[in-house]
From TrEMBL:
Gene3D superfamilies, alphabetized: alpha/beta hydrolase
Signal peptide: none
E.C. numbers: 3.7.1.14
Species of provenance: Azohydromonas lata
GO molecular function: hydrolase activity
Domain of life of the native organism: Bacteria
Name of this protein: 2-hydroxy-6-oxononadienedioate/2-hydroxy-6-oxononatrienedioate hydrolase
Length: 287
């Protein structure tokens, strides 16, 4: 394997997908090579992307011999803009099917963060034969929290940031996003702000979508039992966006699931506890 570090630019790819009435250009990062492929699906925050969400998780999987694909969902980063008036989980699942068809990929393991978890579950429901294993962090939509008022404080702050994309609102959102806010650098804030502001069309479309349909991520709790794929559910005890008890609902509903809870961890387990997260994922995929 090459010792050249993987960069966003060197792994950046575009593909045109046609999936039913969905006809758009998607951006993705294609990292490493191997018999098995892991697709990573990012969350719904403004300025999010596959690379922003998973930059601490790519190298260990590639080093272990996996091909890693990061799909930028429609309406994020360098993928085409879209207004979503139905289920965004299903829209992303259709986009992923379109991407896999376009590049000739039959089957993949899916790692989903928050919205990415909702989308991975939607994909598994629609395309069971094309999923290996599922790794779900802070998402999956087995239903609303029984204990925490919804929408949560984090989701309200995301909405405010979409409507008013300022550095102040970004810092307010990020201050409840992770547990240890001292890990958030000026460079990270700046990169996120730049990502957000270069695609104001994405921000405006997200607001329009939420106005047209506030339930972008419907509850599929009643269908979780259809999913046979082994699932590793990973949550932050201190998640203020998608509360921990919604992770318990996933484990209760899925046919074959286990749960790991990190203390001192917010909504970004794969970034906040990257080393242990990566070891757990590798172990789960290998056995
Ligand atoms: O509304 C939901 O249930 C999903 C919220 C969500 O996906 C938030 C994710 C945020 C990020 O991953 C990010 O901003 O990087």
């Amino acid at each position: 394997m090459s010792n050249t570090p993987l960069t966003e630019a060197s792994t950046s790819r575009f593909v045109r997908i046609q999936e039913g009435d969905l006809d758009l250009q998607l951006h993705y990062n294609d990292c490493g090579s191997g018999d098995e492929t892991v697709v990573m699906l990012h969350g719904s925050g403004p300025g999010a992307s596959g690379w922003a969400n998973f930059n601490r998780n790519i190298e260990p999987l590639v080093a272990a011999g996996y091909r890693v694909l990061l799909m930028d969902c429609p309406g994020w980063s360098k993928s085409d803009p879209i207004v979503c008036t139905g289920s965004r989980s299903e829209l992303n699942a259709r986009a992923l099917k379109g991407l896999m068809d376009a590049i000739g990929l039959d089957k993949a393991h899916l790692v989903g963060n928050s919205m990415g978890g909702h989308s991975a579950v939607a994909f598994a429901l629609a395309n069971p034969a094309r999923v290996g294993k599922l790794i779900l962090m802070g998402g999956g939509t087995g239903g609303a929290s029984s204990f925490v008022p919804m929408p949560t404080e984090g989701i309200k702050l995301i909405g405010a940031l979409y409507r008013q994309p300022t550095i102040e609102n970004l810092k307010r959102m990020m201050s409840v996003f992770v547990y240890d806010t001292s890990s958030l650098t000026q460079a990270l804030f700046q990169a996120r702000l730049d990502n957000m502001l270069t695609r104001r069309d994405h921000l405006e479309n997200f607001v329009k979508s939420a106005e047209a349909n506030p339930k972008q991520f419907p509850d599929v709790g009643h269908r979780l039992g259809e999913i046979k794929a082994p699932a590793l559910v990973i949550w932050g005890r201190d998640d203020r966006f998608v509360p921990l008890d919604t992770g318990l609902r996933l484990v209760a509903g899925l046919q074959n699931a286990e749960l790991h809870v990190f203390s001192r961890c917010g909504h970004w387990a794969q970034w906040e506890h990257a080393d242990k997260f990566n070891r757990m994922v590798l172990d789960f995929l290998a056995h």
